[in-house]
């Protein structure tokens, strides 16, 4: 009888440990390197779950280089080796706003496609916290590799999470059709990209298909609105940025971000 009781206790302890390892909020060891890049985490809490994105290390002494201006320093390399380094350098305030917008959707999205994901906080949130299937896309392979590594460090293990190359200028409406929500955080940095994004998303939106577009006031905003408004009325409304995070480049506070509101 005592042996049976001991076995039962051991079994219950094992099941509890397995459940803990799979529960959202469990964060496994974060890598210090991804491929040949030294990386660092940027972490935030969502519904009691800690999410940690990975970006190129900003440590001046990483690998004994003693300066971020060293040609082999990860942030120096990102700026000089990547055509679009922004996603490898930090987590932008618009990404926090986009994650909050996804969390406010009811019902919660089942399939999320993120354009220009970079560090991919909205994708991590959708996958880990909401349990959605996720496709994270970007024009740069390096931040996508960081994002895949970050997702692998969070429990539960992803059942449907992938990364892929996708250029907004080349994307077709069919490239977006898989998702029920498409996310674009801080992508309106020039008129060409903004206009292309507005046209693609304007065509995509339909019953059961939603978009989350967050913008801090980049120069392409009006070009985006001109293109999107060919399909439905829309405007940007300022919302508070969760946690009051700062701009990645200059460290200035960014308390609000514009979020697209449109006629359904």
How would you concisely characterize the structure shown here?
The chain has 264 residues and is of the alpha/beta class.
Describe the overall structure.
The structure is a single chain. The chain is built from nine helices and ten strands. It has a seven-stranded mixed sheet with strand order 6-5-4-7-8-10-9, with helices on both faces. A three-stranded antiparallel sheet has the order 1-2-3. It is globular, with a radius of gyration of 20 Å. Mean pLDDT is 90; it is low at 1-22. The protein has a domain at 91-262: Vaccinia Virus protein VP39 (Rossmann fold, 3-Layer(aba) Sandwich), CATH 3.40.50.150. The protein has helices spanning 2-22, 74-81, 86-89, 93-104, 121-129, 141-152, 173-176, 191-204, 221-228; strands at residues 33-34, 37-46, 49-56, 111-115, 133-138, 161-165, 181-185, 210-215, 234-240, 256-262. Strand 5 (133-138), helix 6 and strand 6 (161-165) form a beta-alpha-beta unit. Helix 4 packs parallel to helix 5. Helices cover 35% and strands 23% of the residues. The chain starts with a helix and ends with a strand. The chain is of the alpha/beta class and 264 residues long.
């Amino acid at each position: 009888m005592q042996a049976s009781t001991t076995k039962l206790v051991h079994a219950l302890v094992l099941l509890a440990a397995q459940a803990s390892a799979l529960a959202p909020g469990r964060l496994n060891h974060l890598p210090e390197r991804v491929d040949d890049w030294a990386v660092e985490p940027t972490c935030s809490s969502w519904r009691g779950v800690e999410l940690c994105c990975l970006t190129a290390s900003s440590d001046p002494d990483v690998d004994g280089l003693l300066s971020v201006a060293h040609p082999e320093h990860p942030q120096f390399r990102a700026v000089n080796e990547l055509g679009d380094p922004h996603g490898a350098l930090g987590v932008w305030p618009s990404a926090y706003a986009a994650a909050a917008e996804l969390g406010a959707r009811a019902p919660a999205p089942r399939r999320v496609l993120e354009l220009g994901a970079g560090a991919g906080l909205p994708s991590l949130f959708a996958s880990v916290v909401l349990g959605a299937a996720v496709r994270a896309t970007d024009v740069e392979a390096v931040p996508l590799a960081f994002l895949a590594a970050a997702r692998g460090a969070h429990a539960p293990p992803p059942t449907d999470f992938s990364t892929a190359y996708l250029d907004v200028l080349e994307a077709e409406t069919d490239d977006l059709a898989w998702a029920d929500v498409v996310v674009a955080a801080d992508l309106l940095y020039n008129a060409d990209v903004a206009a292309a994004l507005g046209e693609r998303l304007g065509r995509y939106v339909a019953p059961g298909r939603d978009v989350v577009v967050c913008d801090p006031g980049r120069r392409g905003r009006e070009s985006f609105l001109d293109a999107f408004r060919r399909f439905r009325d829309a405007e940007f409304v300022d919302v508070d940025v969760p946690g009051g995070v700062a701009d990645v480049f200059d460290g200035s506070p960014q308390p609000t971000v514009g979020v697209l509101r449109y006629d359904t």
